[in-house]
Amino acid sequence: MYTQALNSNPDAAERHVEDAALAARFQERIDAEERIEPNDWMPAMYRRTLVRQISQHAHSEIIGMLPEGNWITRAPSLRRKAALLAKVQDECGHGLYLYAAAETLGTGREELVDQLLSGKAKYSSIFNYPTLTWADIGAIGWLVDGAAIMNQIPLCRCSYGPYARAMIRVCKEESFHQRQGYEIMLTLAKGTPEQKELAQDALNRWWWPCLMMFGPPDAVSEHSDASTRWKIKRFSNDELRQKFVDATVPQAHYLGLTLPDADLKQDAETGHWSYGAIDWDEFKQVIAGNGPCNKDRMAARRKAHDEGAWVRDAALAYAEKQRLKKAA
Amino acid sequence: MSSQAVPLWEVFIRSRNGLSHKHVGSLHAADTTLALQAARDLYTRRGEGLSIWVVPSNAITASDPADKGMMFEPTASKIYRHPTFYEVPEEVGHM
Asked: What is the ipTM metric for this complex?
């Protein structure tokens, strides 16, 4: 999802032998549902997996401000504008909670940000799609945040304490995001034929990329085994994707919209909705940097970072001056 | 070029009068004024608090988790520190 687990594969050669007794004791604590805290002993791979996952999640929140920020000045009413501003501010906040959680594992903020700006670290594929109309803001809130919630609720029980605590804060705030998105979709769907068409078009474009947010199918997912054993991940990619589809299909029907999947059908016995084949080639392309907006997103982030450099420098210089004055 | 790291702060919030400040998270800021403002923006967007403390993270001295046994086990063995250790006849009533 926001952490599609596609970064740098753990290098097998790097897996140095750790104290077996410590490792066993660690796994016992995990199995007993104990939370791991920053200064506790942990396997190097656990630490690395978490830094990768949490920072990727943080980067996604930060990049995620861009597609929605695109519509702040063009929101159709003051009510919508205020809500969108608050939502984008929340996304920034989520990014910051997550960076702080990642830093407790010993990697500094500056380094994490550099990894994003240099292209070394990934962020969710979903934010590389453009927001072409106002209806996209509705679709993002409803579907992208809806998918995020599916993924984030189990992360509130993740074995690493700081990550779990950050996710609890995030989940509390995320519900407003999804509801405001659905309200936008509902207003458009119940509006003029042109408005309904906008809503349908947004759903058509966002549906499949949203299903891709949960990451590769279980059969080919690289990181799941260790993550599951360590209780970082509690449901597989496919399980979460299925939960999302089952929750979302009836919501689309209520809107009177059609999901862009001819193979979508409900199993009469289980009640689950089965969906058509996902275009994993498109997913790979977007992750590899060839999505519709990858270059724009990175350019916007780098520009903001570079143009903010003087502010960071000035704040530090001022703090230093005050410190010297006090010392004198 | 900002090569210098921006200091880390720990944030504590009192959610309402009568309660103590509670650790809510951390943030980066150049000085105390900016740390307070950032804490307000980051941790109180929905009426979470009435008072904020920010403390430089490096000013906190923490116990070592490796010493957990030595530090905290003795409290478990001193059951005579708890009221239930002592017998009071039922006739005496609540004490």
From this structure: 0.84
